Amino acid sequence: MVELWQQSAAELAQTFRSGAASAAEIVTAHLTRIDAVNPTVNAVVRRLDESALATALDVDRAKAGGEALGPLAGVPFTIKDNIDLAGDVTTHSVAAYADFVPTLDAPVVERMKRAGAIPLARTNLPDLGLRLDSDSSLHGWTANPWNLDHTAGGSSGGEAAALATGMTPLGLGNDIGGSLRNPASCCGIASLKPTFGLVPHALQGPLGEESLTEQIIAVEGPMARTVSDVRLQLNVLAGAHPRDPWSVPATLGGSTTRPFRIALIAEPPGGSTDPRIADITTAAAERLRSKGHLVTTTTPPEWQETLDCWTSIVVGGIAAGMDEMRELLGPDSAAFLDDSIAADEALTDPEQHEAAWTNRHLLIQAWNRFFVDYDAVLTPTWTELPFQRGFDIAPGGAAKTIVMARAIKPANVLGFPSAAVPGGLVDGLPVGLLVTGPAWSDLRCLAIAEAIEADAPATPIDPRGPTHA
Asked: pLDDT tens across 294-337, in order?
């Protein structure tokens, strides 16, 4: 028998619509699952039991009364703790903001609620979301459910671990440096970093006005155990919102079934790649080729310049605000950022930061020309396996961590969509793959990811590996 907490979001929506389970029963099943699993992985940092059950009863009454229901009616979801939920604290995982209570839902939360979904819990992230390991000075460390000594990734690591273990069917995360896709790779789930402007982004204080880098690079997006659930959630989240002046009323179109022209980069330039990860990437490409897609081993133009542009804009932007942020960060997060900045002295040069914005425009043009001949680029998400706890803050670890995640950078700095999907297992740990395409090709990226997913391992339903201290 498949338990309620094991069902996909689409299955849960159908289970509720058919009357096989009430919204209250679905929510209760997931709260019980949190009871059983969360003490092991520490993915959920704040539960919303009372409000979740009250909302579920409201949904049940609406259904009984014959009211119109949204596509996610009765389906619970979790929210990363840097995305606003009105009436609940948004801590950004630091003690200084532990008492900040927003009065407005973030647009993505607003839309999930309008679709009938039920906020269930808040999930962990590193301090201010600025680390590739979800180790919070406020909430503690989130373990990888496949092996509890290894990272769940960052910064949406709490979401990924909660999804992988059945504590939630849907999650909301965000991404400025792979934060939707790094944890997906580490935990063996799916996610989408959407085209910039497709999914609205807005938050209330206490961080104040967002920097230009945050305004232009950061996006919010869907996370789930399956690509089809990511697509279902994207349809709910997408579209213009008055609180986000960059958001657009885009209608996603284009073929998602024809043979696609895919550029394969099994070993992304700019650093080493574990040969086993390269093999998994190549094997996925071969399976795509066997399904009729056209796969060519090639690299987009200005690859290294694109990686450097991300570093100059994102890490350079962090460097510019480090003095202000330092008092908010725990010592480990501060050490990670200090080491990341120290790896390139030029990051503290304002002129280089300005030049990177100019170069970004030229890089987008170059990649757009490349995408005339190719529909998407296939790469590993990380070129090494999920690291053990503490690796990223050991001497030299920050730079190594950023290098192993280099394939996430083009989509961030260029504003392109990038779908994350499990590709296989190495030493019992997930290996994630990325499908990155031109702007507004989100559905195409998901279609290719779904073709890869058909042969990938299932996510864990129970945590496994040694108990961590």
From this structure: 999 999 999 999 999 999 999 999 999 999 999 999 999 999 99
Out of 22, 63, 80, 312, which one is annotated catalytic? Answer: 80
Say how far apart CA 105 and CA 69 lie, in whole Å.
Answer: 20
Non-local (6+) Cβ contacts of 326 within 8 A are 334
Of 155, 185, 191, 340, catalytic: 155
Catalytic residue among 93, 134, 136, 179: 179
Q: Is 80 a residue of the active site?
A: yes
Tell me the whole-structure pTM to 2 decimals: 0.97
- Rounded to whole angstroms, how far apart are CA atoms 306 and 300? 10
Question: Catalytic: 441?
Answer: no
Residue 179 designated active-site: yes
Q: What is the dihedral of CA 6, 122, 172, 158, to 10 degrees?
A: -70
DSSP letter string, 104-173: S--HHHHHHHHTT-EEEEEE--SGGG-SSS-EETTTEEPEETTEEEEE--SSSHHHHHHHHTTS-SEEEE
Q: DSSP letter at 311?
A: I
pLDDT per residue as tens digits for the range 140-187: 999 999 999 999 999 999 999 999 999 999 999 999 999 999 999 999
Residue tagged 């050490």 (tokens): 335
